[in-house]
Design a protein that fits this description.
Organism: Streptomyces similanensis
Radius of gyration: 18 Å
Distance between the termini: 16 Å
Largest sheet: 4 strands, antiparallel
Number of strands: 8
CATH topology: Alpha-Beta Plaits
Shape: globular
Protein name: DUF190 domain-containing protein
Pfam families: DUF190
Helix content: 25-40%
CATH architecture: 2-Layer Sandwich
CATH class: Alpha Beta
Family: Belongs to the UPF0166 family.
Length: 131
Amino acid sequence: MTRLTGTALRLTVFIGENDTWHHKPLYSEIVHRAHRAGLAGASVFRGIEGFGASSLIHTSRLLSLSEDLPVAIVIVDTEDRVRAFLPELNELIGQGLVILDDCEVIRYSGRDKGEDAHRDRGRKHGKKEDV
């Protein structure tokens, strides 16, 4: 079981939803590389409106012409592990914003791979799981 508590570093990458890496969504490539690097976790958040260096406002409103919505990828792990991952981003990010914040992890505990399989079997058999 993976555990992370105490002082950590939060890496946030702001890009556009339509940004790509070798014909794949860039956010997906970042998440997969973070996973391969063994980082504690990564999440992608899709914004409903925003602007960046281009000063062009992107919005999800129905009558807007823009569909390239802002996306934020958030990764939290120890400072050493996050900083070791930064060269991967240098290769991937052409346009965007990358920021680092000190943070404190109050609670983080991952599941063992066996726990996931056990939970999935319980769902298939209609068993209620404890949260």
